[in-house]
Amino acid sequence: MAKLGAGDPRWIVEEREDGKNVGSWHWEDISKIKWSKERLPELLVGVSSSSGNLSIVSIKSITGEASITTRKGNKRFPMFELAITAAYEGKVQAGLVSPAAASDKTVKGEIKIEEFTSHSDEDDFMFTVTVEGSGSEQDECKRTAEGLKPAILERLRAYVEEMNAIMAADETAAMTDSYCIVTGGNSGIGKEIVHGLTAKGAHVVMACRNMEACELVRAELAASGGPGSVACAQLDLEDFASVRACAAGQRAALQGAGRKLSVLVNNAGVMNVPDREGGEDRHMRANHYGPYLLTRLLVPSMGAGSRVVSVSSRAHTYGTIHFDVETGAFGRRGV
After folding, report:
1. Where are the alpha helices (H) located in 131-174, listed in sequence order?
2. What is the spatial distance between Cα 9 and Cα 22, in angstroms, rounded to a whole number?
3. pLDDT, the chain, mean
4. What's the pLDDT at 150?
5. What mean pLDDT is predicted for residues 122-129?
6. Distance of CA 13 to the CA centre of its chain
7. Residues 6 or more apart from 164 whose CB is under 8 A from it?
8. Contact of 74 with 172, CB cutoff 8 Å
9. Residue 183 confidence (pLDDT)
């Protein structure tokens, strides 16, 4: 467990002297209250009784907040806490809500919906129906208005579904202009990363040593019909000439398209492979030197907001490294 006040300073928001949300990393809200105030009247006005003689005629007020919220840099969900006041009108004759006639009396009232929040169940929503005046007609009209609850709930569900759809659309739109490179994207974690990025609309270059496997994954993704696109690039992280060639090719492609590299995911690596001729450790070249060189060569093609993600493992917790001070060579202890 982390010690209070210790750890990544981006998480320590309350205790920062300036009280700032660093780089919007801890949370980010995209307000949807304006859209909510436009959409909810469209959904609710016109909700009527089965006889058609009592209906919601207007929305008098909508208060509260609504937003698409990002937490911890990657978790997105809709959040809202709203209170709605709707005005209704009903036609009554001889104490009954009846088919409209010239002699019908118009009764007016309000339906208040409170505790309409993203973290509450429908059973927790509070419905309060009031009516103007008193008498048998008003009582009957109020009972009919209370019977609108199932229809109102149906419209509120539609609002929530549309908020979710907006969130999904925002996520895709946020990456449609993104150019990403994923090393080792043809299998394992790398393949899943490529799937996730293309699902959000990004263009992803899979930089792989095995081009045949890379092309198979590219064809698979192309056939899925997702919003993103995929390309393949040759890369052998153990071969520094290959790293330089790959980086040069990607820099040229980015410059030619007038784009910046949005995301570089250093995912590829090797494990339990024999040393190179001469005793050089292939793990150091493929897992450390190669990714470092690739990153340094691609930094000039990055822009504001670009990210470098390095995928690791827990192997370092039980491995040891032997460093020869005289030669500067790395090796595995006991080899």
Report:
1. 136-146, 149-173
2. 9
3. 83
4. 94
5. 92
6. 22
7. 78
8. no
9. 96
Answering whether pTM is above 0.70, one says no
What are the distances in angstroms from CA 165 to CA 80, 192, 299?
Answer: 15, 23, 35
Let me know: does 127 contact 149? Beta carbons within 8 Å. Answer: yes
CA distance 218 to 232: 7
138, pLDDT greater than 60: yes
- In the prediction, which pLDDT does 96 show? 54
What count of Cα atoms within 13 Å lies in the side-chain half-sphere of residue 17? 0
Strand, coil or helix: 25: coil
Instruction: Measure the CA–CA gap between 25 and 23, rounded to whole angstroms.
Output: 5
Closest by alpha carbon to 47, among 129, 163, 122, 153?
153
Residue type, 155: R
Closest CA to 67 of 200, 166, 169, 155: 166
Q: Which residues contact 260 (CB under 8 A, 6 or more apart)?
A: 179, 254, 301, 302, 303, 306
Length of the chain: 335
Give the residue among 114, 71, 66, 107 at the shortest CA–CA distance from 89.
107
DSSP state of 183: E
At 165-176, the pLDDT tens digits run 888 776 666 688
- What one-letter code names the amino acid at 286? A
* Beta carbons of 186 and 212 less than 8 angstroms apart: no
Phi and psi angles of residue 203, each rounded to the nearest 5 degrees, phi first? -90, 125
Which residues 6+ apart lie within 8 Å of 267 measured at CB?
A: 182, 183, 184, 185, 189, 190, 193, 309, 311
Task: Please name which of 302, 25, 76 lies closest in space to residue 179, comparing C-alpha atoms.
Answer: 302
Cβ within 8 Å of residue 283, ≥6 positions away: 269, 270, 271, 273
